[in-house]
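Recap from last week: sequence in, structure out.
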Amino acid sequence: MKSKLLLLILSFSVVLFSCKKEKTPEDKLADAKQQVIGTWAVQSGSVTYYDAAGKVVKTEPADVDGGIQIQFVDATTVKTSDSPNDPYPYTLTNADGKIMLNVINVNYELKVNSNTMSWSLESEYTDNNDDHIVKGILTIQFKKV
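Predicted structure tokens:
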């Protein structure tokens, strides 16, 4: 009897402590606002093209300057290494569960953690090309310096 009771208590403890609370959109936004602060170096870029069915047609490297660094100075100001005396305003918002970065009136989907960050920008295409491409997503990868 004691072993059954001990097993029941142990099972309940595992279930109770293994359940991880899902972060709210507000928590994710607060985390992103904190993690983005600092200096980031451009690592690479790519463009992935999709057809009308959502199937990847092709992925190509994007022409990004790997020497550029982006510095998020505070919660509203960003600078670039190629024009450090020209700060730009930025905002981070939560839209449909995605963290969005708006800088220079362009909205990027932002994914960030303590060491890596990516910006993604989606563009629609008219279906007048040989590959039947209807959408392209530019993704730029960064690494924290």
